[in-house]
Amino acid sequence: MSSESEAIPPVQRQLIVFDFDWSLADQDSDRWVLEVLAPKLRRKMKDLKKEVQWTDLVATCLKELHEQGGTREQIEDALRIMPFHPAMVRGVSALKSRGKTTFFCLSNANIIYINTILKSKGLETLFDEIVTNPAEWDPSGLLKLRRRIDPSAPQHDCKVGCSPNMCKGDELDAFLKRHGPEFDRIVYVGDGSNDFCPVLRLRKQDIVFCRRYRGLYNLIQPYEDEGRLHCGVRYWTGAWEAEALLDQL
Ligand SMILES: [Mg+2]
Ligand SMILES: [Zn+2]
Fold first, then answer.
1. 151 C-alpha vs ligand 2 centroid, how far in Å?
2. Contact at 8 Å (CB) between 234 and 212?
3. Per-residue pLDDT, 120
4. pTM of the model
5. Fold entry, domain 14-26+84-135+148-246
6. Which pLDDT score, from 0 to 100, does residue 180 have?
7. How much is the pLDDT for 62?
8. Active site annotated at which positions (predicted)?
9. Which of 36, 133, 185, 226 could covalently link to 11 via disulfide, CB atoms 3.0 to 4.6 Å apart?
10. Cβ(19)–Cβ(166) below 8 Å
11. Domain with CATH 3.40.50.1000 in the chain
């Protein structure tokens, strides 16, 4: 099994891909906002999770929050106090300052949440590109959230298990096409089951920094044990361990 102490060789042109919730950030933004502002809606989200597509469910809860008097300012305040580990801020800032690395955020959250949180951490210029669900404030203070792939548009045909709103594997491939020539190495930082699809597309010179004990970990482990994963794997639990991995890049 790969360990934190195993050296990562240097490269010239590198891409780092960050999942957002529980990977770059130390919480889940969709759930957090409701935990802070409307626990009854948070409960509803938990109860309906298996029946309603996730992005649609979050959009519905945001509408109800607005109807109950929840304001834009309250949502922004909740996002700014969401757990985000200082070690992660340090790790990504140091990597960015060394140059040679392109930063790509690939997330099932939404653009308003991500930009609000990044700004509050002084990381608003970290990413070269962010791919996530579109969202916008309407003048009344309602946060209008939509799926990245609209339900009326042609749907992706991912067989790995990505949610209908977005196939992260397809989005990674599309990013790589937009940003050729090939990167010498891709590093993917993720935790969730929806990170499994892009990780399966990584090459042997690529590495996944997989957070332990969450969806991605459970899916990856048997693959790695059986030697069926193309890319290398490094595991981390706390952001301070992820920082040590980032420092090797
Ligand atoms: Mg995640
Ligand atoms: Zn997929």
1. 16
2. no
3. 98
4. 0.95
5. Rossmann fold (3.40.50)
6. 86
7. 98
8. 19 (nucleophile), 21 (proton donor)
9. 185
10. no
11. 14-26+84-135+148-246
18's enclosing H/E stretch is strand 14-18
Token match 């298990």: residue?
A: 161
Rounded distance from Cα 199 to ligand 2 centre (Å)? 10
Mean pLDDT by 10 residues, the chain (249 residues): 68 96 98 98 97 97 98 98 98 96 98 98 98 97 97 94 95 96 97 97 97 96 90 97 97
Q: What is the pLDDT of residue 7?
A: 83
Does 128 count as an annotated binding residue?
no
| Nearest-angstrom CA–CA distance, 30 and 36 | 11
Residue 223 near residue 202 (C-beta atoms within 8 A): no
What is the residue type of 19? D
Around ion ligand 1, which residues have CB less than 5 A away? 19, 21-23, 191-192
Angstrom distance (rounded) from CA 151 to CA 165: 8
Instruction: Give me 1's structure tokens.
Output: 């099994």
Predicted confidence at residue 5, as pLDDT, reads 62
Distance CA 241, CA 88 (A): 9
